[in-house]
Design goal:
Layout lengths: L15 E6 L2 E6 L2 E7 L1 H6 L12 E7 L2 E7 L5 E6 L2 E10 L3 E7 L7 H13 L3 E7 L14 H5 L4 E3 L8 H8 L3 E5 L6 H8 L25 E6 L2 E5 L44 H7 L5 H11 L7
Parallel strand pairs: 3-5, 8-9, 8-11, 9-10, 11-13
Antiparallel strand pairs: 1-2, 2-3, 4-5, 6-7, 12-13
This protein binds guanosine-5'-triphosphate, magnesium ion (MG) and zinc ion.
């Protein structure tokens, strides 16, 4: 490849990393897919983050036989990230350059944990990425009681889709939200992320797992993040289930910005640096007491703002 084929400054190269396998990456190019290794300098330059992540746009050199080398990674426009395991200062990228998060939880099996959903929404807010809450396995909620847990997200302003990969309910609505965007399906294991993707595009035939009976927890069937192209500019990433979501780069002072339903009140507190916990004349607490902010969401904020200090 000659230098003329390189992308100009400010432009994103068309080549998209769609899957990683340790040292190798599948890269979708305008003419096909290549299995690529990574040039050593890319790793040396990026020690505090994944040197290459699924969703990255990359410059490559083709080697023939469907193989290539990633020469450089374009600066990420945004990234949905978590803390690397055991390293609070290192970013682990769930997906680079997504347009939106589809936060998938099951209405039951496994039991949904709203605090966990709050964390997913929070990392997306921090990254400047919009979210859709996708409540799956609605076929199992025969009484309609289970879905009420998710009312608070609708009240907070998030689109909430009730769907079932089994019955097909809500799939068309979900498909509408995906059109023309790069979306990332994320959530706990066993909630049906891969099953939903199979419903959205049956030609993909992605492996789905069983929720183990003993624990009701998923078994981590999906082991690597993979981007699928659904049509033209519509892409969706399936991700492995996440058990613990370490909040990368979230500072306590900024937490209130990441709860969208707080935003209308944020500049009305008496103290500019109000924590909204015990200060007088706090507009958030007034909104809470007036029923304009959901109490569970507020408690979720409070627990993150003032974590209980545990003995070492
Ligand atoms: N009843 C019911 N079961 C579902 C539904 N969607 C998925 N399942 C089942 O839930 C189990 C887990 O589904 P997966 O699609 O593998 O879940 P996942 O979120 O991709 O899990 P990981 O890959 O481990 O993160 C499978 O046994 C599915 O058949 C649904 O809408 N209703
Ligand atoms: Mg899966
Ligand atoms: Zn306040």
């Amino acid at each position: 490849m000659t230098d003329q084929s390189r992308t100009q400054p400010g432009e994103m190269p068309p080549n998209l990393v769609v899957r990683g396998y340790g040292k190798f990456y599948d890269v979708l190019t305008p003419t096909g897919q290549l299995l690529c290794t990574v040039r050593g300098n890319v790793k040396r330059e990026r020690r505090k983050t994944d040197p290459v992540a699924v969703g990255d746009r990359v410059e490559i050199t083709e080697l023939g036989n469907g193989e290539g080398v990633i020469e450089s990674v374009a600066p990420r426009r945004r990234a949905l990230s978590r803390e690397a395991r055991g390293r609070t200062d290192v970013e682990h990228v769930i997906l680079a350059n997504p347009d939106q998060l589809i936060a998938v939880f099951a209405v039951t099996e496994p039991e949904p944990h709203p605090r966990m959903l709050d964390r997913f929404l929070l990392i997306a807010e921090r990254a400047g990425i919009g979210s859709v809450v996708c409540v799956n396995k609605i076929d199992l909620d025969t009484s309609g009681e289970g879905r009420k847990l998710f009312d608070r997200y609708h009240e907070a302003g998030y689109p909430v889709i009730y769907c079932s990969a089994d019955s097909g309910q809500g799939i068309d609505e979900l498909r509408e939200h995906l059109r023309g965007k790069i979306s990332v399906l994320a959530g706990p294991s066993g909630v049906g992320k891969s099953s939903l993707l199979n419903q959205i595009d049956p030609t993909q035939d992605i492996r789905v797992g069983e929720v183990s009976d003993a624990t009701g927890k998923g078994r981590h069937t999906t082991t690597a993040t993979t981007i699928f192209r659904l049509a033209g500019e519509t892409y969706i990433a399936d991700t492995p289930g996440i058990r613990q979501l370490g909040l990368y780069g979230v500072v306590p002072e900024d937490l209130d910005q990441y709860f969208p339903e707080f935003r209308p009140w944020l500049n009305a507190c008496y103290y500019r640096d109000c924590t909204h916990i015990d200060e007088p004349d706090c507009a958030i607490i007034e909104a809470l007491d007036a029923g304009k902010i959901n109490r569970e969401r507020y408690e979720s904020y409070r627990s993150l703002r003032q974590p209980v200090v545990e003995d070492a």
